[in-house]
Amino acid sequence: MKRLISLGMVVLLFYGCGSKENAKSETNSSSPSAQQSEALATIQKIAQAKKNPQLELQKQQLIKEGMVYLNKADISSALKAFGEVIKLDPSDTQAYFILVQTYMHLKNYDNALQILNTIIQIEPTNGLAYYLKGVASGLNGNNQEAMVSIKKSIEIFQAKKDEENLKRSIAFLQGLMENTSSVDDLRGSKSGNIKPTDVSVNMENNE
User: Which domains does the chain have, with CATH numbers?
Assistant: First the structure.
């Protein structure tokens, strides 16, 4: 139940076009009963998405629209489109990952980390989520947390025999260990320069 309530709150964050203040305001004003109702609504949406193939088409269309907006640098419209995808199916992590990349591009690492924590709740063995959490934590000035997340991604990639992502995580960890006191060096690291396309290419190995 706590996990579902958390998902609901993240949907509020997305639909508000990434406004952290709006999400905070919603959290403060919601009563426990309102949060439970929100969680039940989330369960119904997940069940509906699994039963109705038409929703999958609708989600993919919204994702395409969001990517078009991103290419036009219309961030507000892109975030709204991705937020609609999550409203349709809060358990589908594809839109979450795109949002993470968008927020990281905007250097809004706090929002990126919040979304990554939600992805990890949905898919606890998603190595890519831990890898990106490590990158975002490092860029946000928390190298200690970055190392913890990157080490976790290494464990997952080793277990899944995902050699490509394993090498990337090891290289990034080495960079962190060499530059633990320099966030600027981390930002210049090749390992840190991740593009949204990297997520779509490697996501299949992490589900």
Answer: 1-90 (no CATH), 92-207 (1.25.40.10)
